Amino acid sequence: RTRGTDLFQLDMEYVLYVKAEDQNGRVDDRRYQSTPEERLSIVGGKRAPQFYMPSYEAEIPENQKKDSDIISVKAKSFADREIRYTLKAQGQGAGTFNIGPTSGIVKL
């Protein structure tokens, strides 16, 4: 239940701790059987896409052929929108790799 006019602030994380108790399964006179508390994180408002893994690594053999798949990256949209991938490379080696804009597959 909420109070006030705003249901939640945008871009704010709300943390709840949830525990389930079995009211019919008493352990003793005062305690019920229960699960451990679980942390539930809720983010209010718009949230940027997030990669499924914190980092991605790939080793490329010296004789790897051009246009070979190197690695696949994947991100989740919290707004259920299509994810578009781009690579930003600078300096020497820029243009060596490309990424499928919708697949997330990095190629040599």
Task: Please tell me about this protein's structure.
Strand 2 and strand 3 form a beta hairpin. Strands 6-9-8 form a three-stranded antiparallel β-sheet, with no helix packed on it. The protein has a two-stranded antiparallel sheet with strand order 1-4. It contains no helices and nine strands. It is mostly beta strands.
Give a quick rundown of the structure:
With 108 residues, this protein is mainly beta.
Spatial strand arrangement across the major sheet: 6-9-8
What is the string of helix and strand elements? Answer: EEEEEEEEE
Major beta-sheet overview: 3 strands, antiparallel
CATH class of the largest domain: Mainly Beta
Count every helix, treating DSSP H or I runs of 4 or more residues as helices.
0
Q: Supply the number of structural domains.
A: 2
CATH topology of the largest domain: Immunoglobulin-like
Radius of gyration: 23 Å
**CATH architecture classification of the largest domain:** Sandwich
**What is the number of strand segments?**
9
The best one-word shape is elongated
* Mean pLDDT score: 78
What is the CATH homologous superfamily assignment of the largest domain?
A: Cadherins
InterPro entries: Cadherin-like_sf
Protein name: Neural-cadherin
GO molecular function: calcium ion binding
Topology:
Elements: E1 12-18, E2 21-26, E3 32-34, E4 38-44, E5 50-51, E6 69-72, E7 75-76, E8 98-99, E9 105-107
